[in-house]
Amino acid sequence: MVYLVAGLGNPGPRYELTRHNAGFMVVDHLAEGLRAAYWKDEAGARTSVIRAGDADVVLAKPQSFMNVSGSPVSRLVDHYEVPLERLIVVHDDIDLPEGSIRVKSGGGHGGHNGLRSLQQRLGSGEYLRVRIGVGRPPGRQDPADYVLEPMGRIAAEKLGEAVLLGERAVLHVIEHGVTSAMNEFNTRE
Prior knowledge:
The chain is of the alpha/beta class. The protein has helices spanning about 20-35, 70-80, 115-120, 145-150, 155-175, 180-185, and strands at about 1-5, 40, 45-50, 55-60, 85-95, 100-105, 130-135.
């Protein structure tokens, strides 16, 4: 059985430590924890295949910008013949409080441009998601500016906590299923 875990983010050092790269951060933690030994460039993404429980897991960080990440993810889905119910997309979510996560099966894009791109390329929103809460921008700040700006220490700490929870949630989905993961992680405050 093969899972594809696609962390959404933007490539390059300018975006590395921003809220918008929460998906990349979760994938990096999974890679470290599961001892991913080799990364390669394929289908417009950095990928590494690891083992988690009884499953082969393709970790992916699309190297296109967030708004067009659907193309590399859809090519990987096709290449590895991954059914959408085993595609786990990890992404930032301004509608969740900082430091929180939610596991979800299916749904719309909710205004998230990375998810919009995925939905357009896959023809469906019926994949699994691990949503990493980054909170709403203060005042009238543009959400795009907010998720791409450098974070202060407290915001970075909260995001770090959510990334660790997100890593655990992804592994829980793979090992125990999405319903169990929703019961385990969606009740936390």
